[in-house]
Amino acid sequence: MAINPSSLTGSYLQNDPAYGVLQAAKSAQTAHTIGSIGGSLGGGAIGALVGTAVSPGVGTLIGGMIGGMAGNAVGNGIASAATQPKLNQAFQNQTNTYLQQDQTMQSNVFAAIQSGAI
User: Fold this and answer.
1) Given pLDDT bands bounded at 50, 70 and 90, which one contains residue 40?
2) pLDDT tens digits for range 68-109
3) For residues 76 and 22, what is the distance between their CA atoms, to the nearest angstrom?
4) Which one of 38, 42, 68, 116 has the minimum C-beta count within 10 Å?
């Protein structure tokens, strides 16, 4: 039996409670990548300028390296602060959906037991 590839994407996945978490995780990963690269570039440039002012040559190299590392940390911190609420909300929505499904199933089983069907 062949699997229709279109059944693996689109509305099929969008109906899965984990779909929102997946989308939020993709957004967070993109933000972290941009924050990391942007922070490293910006921090490296500022560090190189400061290093050049202190000691041209060696200072430029060391300042650029230290600035790049600091910029990376700052960029990742900003990305985390920006994406964490959305990711938390997606996890909460997924958890609530699973809990509602579980409560519905338990209610149905309890009703069947009370009616004598089970």
Assistant:
1) very high
2) 999 999 999 999 888 888 888 888 888 888 888 888 888 888
3) 20
4) 116
Can you give the residue range of the structural domain that contains 81? 27-115
Within a domain: 32? yes
Q: What is the pLDDT of residue 46?
A: 94
Whose tokens are 């149905």? That residue is 108
Contacts 24+ apart (CB under 8 A), 80-83: 80/32, 82/31, 83/24, 83/27, 83/28, 83/31, 83/32
How many domains in the chain? 1
